[in-house]
């Protein structure tokens, strides 16, 4: 039996979550489909966590428009949805006088896009702002509106608020096909078919597959891999702004930036690949990151690296976002080719597409829409008196499970119990950061597994890192054993 909806959103990354949240303002029956066990499990989980100012995109493109608008929305959105965001500003550095024309072109381009406060600074002024820049930095473009954000926090907050406002989420539901039907579309999935009046294609690296099933104007998306080093919080104050280099043919180059959680992030590479699931890191790519980052910032303490990772960007052949109603497919709306600056642009993309669909559907705004959402309280960040009172009321907040990040049993429990609560170890990690610290879950895994199993009411051997098949433990006659290489 098919389920009928007004709107089905395909994809639970930051773009799909933003569209769902904006659609939830309207009196519509909405469903979001995600093939993984949680939101933020694909492209959105592994990126530079940057809110770009908007000077890099070509004027007149979707990237330029959505980047600048999304940047301006981010501050208010962070207040409403209670996620980490800092407007720390960004610097694009050059190393010789010959680099000045490139900075001037970026400044002019940014001003055409509507970016505020852009300024070119000489090397001496830049080093006063960032004393750890290399001595041969000649000049820099300063963009005060640049920022940093937690991509997990942003995506989860958007999704939770959408769910609280009536959007249905279906996880571990893979879309296998899209067919035109009378008055809309039939969405074929691994868990049954759905009928919908409108569809939103926010499927990341696979958005071209679904678009090409219904539109006679084809698009092509290829993955571009970027590798990163993440350094311990002891290195987190090496720079205070996000430091870029003058862009080349593959984009904005290797950056050095603080994170909202106090770490230092260095990367990415830009390697075009064929396999849409290939997120491996290589020694060669990571060495490239090290060398290029050291060109901008001196004495980066790579001895403090706690992990490396790679993410994939969904690069469309025309190098722009593909947004709006697909050609020849009324009611099918694309959010495709969302590579950088997709994280920055997501709030604006959500607003734009939701507005288009609401007008087409003749939908009215709901009077009871709730724009606010509160995140999980981090006990260790509270003033001492408030933390003591919290522990007095509930001792679970005084039991530290993750020592590196100071995450309590109460917070891990809350991550499971809340709207769209965690169902895996990665789900816990992205909501409260248990396992993201210096030891990379070496200490806290047993305690987290135990709490997660108890809250879900399942045996510990059923607890997964993420997707089905990633169980951490297996039961043998002699007792429980760790399976695989941990998390």
From TrEMBL:
InterPro entries: BFD-like_2Fe2S-bd_dom, BFD-like_2Fe2S-bd_dom_sf, FAD-dep_OxRdtase, FAD/NAD-bd_sf, G3P_Oxidase/Oxidoreductase. Residues 400-454 form the BFD-like [2Fe-2S]-binding domain. Residues 6-354 form the FAD dependent oxidoreductase domain. PANTHER family: GLYCEROL 3-PHOSPHATE OXIDASE, GLYCEROL-3-PHOSPHATE DEHYDROGENASE. This is NAD(P)/FAD-dependent oxidoreductase. It comes from Candidatus Eisenbergiella merdigallinarum.
